[in-house]
Design a protein that fits this description.
By secondary structure, the chain is α+β, with helices and mostly antiparallel strands. It is built from 3 helices and 10 strands; from the N terminus they run H-E-E-H-E-E-E-E-H-E-E-E-E.
């Protein structure tokens, strides 16, 4: 006469069969005299550091509420670690005052129905939507030089020009032909040289370009 299968083995077999039909967590039924054994922890939610996950979740939740959509309809396009140049995470609003301190964090790009939204975070609990898709500003006589240095930086970084943000354009009178950024080993004409200082930003990093009024420029890396 065959012995009946122990109850805990029947329950274990049923659980394993159910798990094979779907991605569900497995908990082994307690054996007599023992405690339940939990399955291994689930895999990470995305190919980014585990410490970034709460900030990704925060950005997802915030955007889904703003757009009144389900979080499941929001796609995470990119999560990259960034050193932001100020307390405004490199995305100051007009007239906003920012602390001059480097803030480590993440750049999180989310996509909903083909539209991308960039969130900038610290490494604690801040996640702010950075609206960089404002209409292109006309910089007047400086526009050709702005276009020139934007193209130069895009080439250096190998990124689309659309990812370069023009933060500021200032008229300058440089003290000599070095455009205010002399390089070791070079000689310069001691003559007042009018031009512009053009501040660009890409990926949370700022770049300082100096130009004359023609087509000469230098990326000033002090």
């Amino acid at each position: 006469m065959k012995k009946a299968m122990p109850l805990f083995l029947v329950l274990l077999l049923a659980t394993l069969l159910a798990a094979a039909c779907g991605d569900i967590p497995i908990t082994v039924p307690p054996q007599p005299g023992g405690e339940p054994t939990a399955s291994p922890t689930a895999a990470p939610k995305g190919p980014w550091p585990a410490e970034a996950q709460p900030l990704v979740d925060l950005a997802l939740t915030t955007l889904s509420k703003e757009l009144s959509v389900s979080p499941s309809s929001v796609e995470v396009v990119k999560v990259e670690e960034v050193q932001w140049p100020d307390g405004c995470l490199g995305c100051a609003r007009p007239g906003q005052m920012c602390t001059d301190v480097i803030v480590p964090g993440y750049r999180i790009v989310l996509r909903v129905a083909g539209a991308d939204f960039e969130y900038r975070t610290d490494k604690k609990d801040r996640a702010m939507l950075c609206l960089n898709d404002t209409p292109k500003k006309d910089w007047g006589p400086a526009q050709p030089l702005v276009d020139l240095v934007v193209a130069d930086l895009a080439g250096r970084l190998n990124v689309p020009k659309e990812q370069i943000i023009v933060r500021q354009v200032l008229e300058k009178e440089w003290n000599d032909s070095s455009l205010g950024c002399p390089q070791p080993g070079y000689a310069y004409l001691t003559v007042i040289t009018p031009g512009y200082q053009i501040l660009l930003e890409a990926g949370g990093t700022q770049y300082d370009y100096h130009t004359d009024l023609r087509t000469n420029f230098v990326l000033c890396e002090k």
